[in-house]
TrEMBL record:
GO terms for molecular function: dioxygenase activity; L-ascorbic acid binding; metal ion binding; oxidoreductase activity, acting on paired donors, with incorporation or reduction of molecular oxygen. The keyword Endoplasmic reticulum does not apply. Residues 219-321 form the Fe2OG dioxygenase domain. PROSITE patterns: FE2OG_OXY. Keywords: Iron, Metal-binding, Oxidoreductase, Vitamin C. InterPro entries: DIOX_N, IPNS-like_FE2OG_OXY, IPNS-like_sf, Oxoglu/Fe-dep_dioxygenase_dom. Belongs to the iron/ascorbate-dependent oxidoreductase family. It comes from Daucus carota subsp. sativus (Carrot). PANTHER family: OS03G0690500 PROTEIN, OXIDOREDUCTASE, 2OG-FE II OXYGENASE FAMILY PROTEIN. This is Fe2OG dioxygenase domain-containing protein. Pfam families: 2OG-FeII_Oxy, DIOX_N.
Length: 373
């Protein structure tokens, strides 16, 4: 039964939701993104970007200085079996304990890394009228540029603009990508695909499996190139560049610039990932945690807002979400036993990513939806 008092309570809530929806739509209709706000000289963070205080959690403290992201040097990877096994062990430890690690001497030239970041800058530095032609929420397009894929469903918007494209297994034609960054998108994606095969070989060995096991499961088949721009923020204490989340693919390879701002959660504290020239950050994603039956950890991470900017990064997600497939993924049979039964039900990549997309970056684990025990 609806009483007058419940009506009085409901009306402000409805009005508030209605106002927020209008503000979101008005912002989205500009097609200028967060960078457009900053370029216009905005001095205060709009309400749609303000996060509640509990969204910030525990920041880095003295306790956190005891921890640092593991850095693994691939220089001796092919030197001899002993050196390779040492690297496998480091990958295993990092994947089980942190879910995050950095790799150096990974084979991708520094010039390619630098050009990838320059390409992202060039994209976002284009004239606003040029970018508006690319702004869309139609994710069937070869290139998607917008602000917050979950803009209309998340509790608060993130201070970030993004463009993305599926680069494997069926890359777009060059003319389907922006001239400002098409060459480097294609070159960098090829290089990351090669690195991905190496990473999945090492991860397979770390699980005690054949080196080709994860590759044969098509974990390295699909790749998404994502360019992020985090403009300078006038009130960084009120918003986030990216809310805490895990990634929904198999593995993520991240290139960040020298501004930093990336953090991952370890023992209930946020740990900074300081920039390391020439390094790439690798993190375990949800589907790899699922198929390893929680052996490898998909760890929450976020990006804090900053007075300095724009910060740019390139995230490459190994995922086949764009490929229609009925292939089922569940805990690998070699990793389960009577004492260690499957913790997740089987799912397709498409089902998992669709669930992830519908949830948005709401701070809650997507894996729980698929958990059996």
């Amino acid at each position: 039964m609806v009483t007058s008092s419940t009506m009085e309570t409901a009306v402000p809530l409805i009005t508030s939701y209605s106002n927020r929806r209008r503000e979101l739509q008005a912002f989205d209709d500009t097609k200028a993104g967060v960078k457009g706000l900053v370029d216009a000289g905005i001095q205060k963070v709009p309400n749609i970007f303000i996060h509640p205080p509990d969204a910030f959690g525990k920041n880095s403290s003295d306790k956190c200085k005891e921890f640092s992201i593991p850095t693994i040097d691939f220089e001796c990877l092919d030197k001899d079996p002993t050196s390779r096994q040492d690297i496998v062990e480091k990958v295993r430890c990092a994947s089980e304990t942190f879910g995050f690690f950095q790799v150096v001497n990974h084979g991708i030239p520094v010039s390619v890394l630098e050009e990838a970041l320059h390409g992202v800058h060039r994209f976002f530095d284009q004239d606003s009228e040029v970018k508006k032609q690319l702004y869309t929420r139609d994710y069937t397009k070869k290139l998607v540029y917008n602000t917050n894929y979950d803009l209309f469903s998340s509790p608060a918007a993130n201070w970030r603009d993004t463009f993305s494209s599926f680069m494997a297994p069926s890359p777009p034609q060059p003319e389907e990508l922006p001239a400002a960054c098409r060459d480097i998108m294609m070159e960098y994606s090829k290089q990351v695909m090669k690195l991905g095969i190496t990473l999945f070989e090492l991860l397979s060995k770390a699980l005690g499996l054949d080196p080709n096991y994860l590759q044969d499961m098509e974990c390295a088949k699909g790749l998404i190139f994502i360019g992020h721009c985090y403009p300078a923020c006038p009130q960084p204490e009120l918003t986030l560049g990216a809310t805490k989340h895990t990634d929904d693919g198999f593995l993520t390879v991240l290139l960040q610039d020298q501004i930093g701002a990336l953090q991952f959660l370890h023992e209930d504290h946020w740990i900074d990932v300081p920039p390391l020239p020439g390094a790439l950050i690798v993190n375990i994603a949800d589907l790899l945690q699922l198929i390893t039956n929680d052996r490898f950890k998909s760890v929450e991470h976020r990006v804090v807002a900053n007075h300095i900017g724009p910060r740019v990064s390139v995230a490459c997600f190994f995922s086949t979400s764009v490929m229609p497939s009925t292939k089922l993924y569940g805990p690998i049979k070699e990793l389960v036993s009577e004492d260690n039964p499957p913790k997740y039900r089987e799912t397709t990549v498409q089902e998992y990513v669709s669930h992830s997309f519908s949830k948005g970056l709401d701070g809650e684990s997507r894996l729980q939806h698929f958990r059996l025990i």
